[in-house]
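Deliverable D4.2, example record:
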Amino acid sequence: MYYNPYPYFVYPHYYPTWVMANQPTTQQPSRHLAMPDPTNRSPFPSINTVKLKTSAKRIKVIMQQAQLLTDKIDESEQFAHDLMNAAQQSNKTEVEKLIASTGVTVKFETNYTPDGFRITFTESGCCKLTLIFGW
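Output generated by the structure prediction step:
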């Protein structure tokens, strides 16, 4: 169905006053306009940066943990082989054991696909970091 962003009113008494500029009227503009009414907008809440700053602080910890994993994959051919092999076989316990052996202590979730590996680190429900490795 075609959407027309401009209002078109069939009956003359539904036309807003700005359309009938040459005719004086006391009628209020129709509420069926296609454009938003800025007077009905509620103000935004006041800004509180405490949660944002807390998330930024906690995400730093997650990034350090992710750095442990990526360094181990980069530095050790055997570790990369073992991790990829376990993931391709959908051996979740082995994958988690290998990741934990790098020194990762934060909570994480893993998913595997035929063309990659995804790990999501979570810190106390405030923030997440997802790494996607392709192979």
